[in-house]
Amino acid sequence: MTNVTDGPLVLGIETSCDETGAGIVRGRELLADEVASSMDQHARFGGVVPEVASRAHLEAMVPVIEGAFAKAGVRPADIDAVAVTAGPGLAGALMVGVAAAKAYAYALGKPLYGVNHLAAHVAVDQLEHGPLPAPCMALLVSGGHSSLLLVPDITGEVVSLGATIDDAAGEAYDKVARVLGMPFPGGPPIDRAAASGDPAAIRFPRAKLHDGSYDFSFAGLKTAVARWVEARRDAGEPVPVADVAASFQEAVVDVLVTRARRAAADVGARALCLAGGVAANSLLRTRVSQACADDGIGAFLPSRALCTDNAAMVAAAGWWRLQHGGASLLTLGADPNLRLATSA
Ligand code: KG4
Ligand code: ZN
Question: How many CB atoms lie within 10 A of CB 251?
Fold first, then answer.
């Protein structure tokens, strides 16, 4: 096992969406996690505009990387490896990060590691809680992903067991929030409103996918909520916002926790780890902790800042990759659809 405090220094670069990130770790110790977001430039379009994001990455890349070196108190020449998100994500945005990472790796004469964004979300927890027990099940839930990932052990490849077949969990929160007249992103206001609502007020549907599947579906639930609210408005009746929020949240969390728990039991996981923006949800955190305590397995809940997209996770994944060699070539390309290994 690598000594944590004098482990290798890894620079991680993340540009898969609107965040330009540069993170530096020394082994499992986080030294810097700098981020510049172009979200204000996208707000008026109601979503991330890929070309705008790519240009913003170009402008922010070098200052963000220099900021990370300054924050960490290390020089570029001290770095032992450069890691970068190679995918999945927006093609043009990824290309900026990959080009920057290649330039630094080549100029410094250090190995380059192209990492998968989803695996990086899981790798980040070790910066706060040390090594994950093996095998571990990870539930990655954000605006872009809802996935169940199997982490065999630190030397193995992260395996995708299931994913959303339509909307991601965070996307469902954002769409339901819009129906209820709440601001974007919708997760935090729904979470707050749900606190004073009755989760049993309305029985919203839980998608039943074929037996044995670890996939998710949230489009039907989102539509059911929209229809229910519309019917109340058409009838001239007031919409009980807190009850709708609480009942919707209950359905989402119920599906996520039931599925994650079953997957964890099926593979004999020793822990369940949460990742992604929705991992900030108060009900989800409580239910995951409860379920893990009941099932006698560990619950790993990273802090909110490390759950959302950041570059510390890319550096952590780079360090992870360093444990079992296999650097990328300087011909590494960005792959918007980069896949994890999938289970048979
Ligand atoms: O990981 P993230 O910051 O960005 C990406 O999607 O890549 O995740 C953002 C998502 C949004 O859909 C937001 O509504 C959701 O995370 N979110 C939450 C909460 N905080 C953020 N969802 C439920 N409850 C929350 N407290
Ligand atoms: Zn992400």
Answer: 22
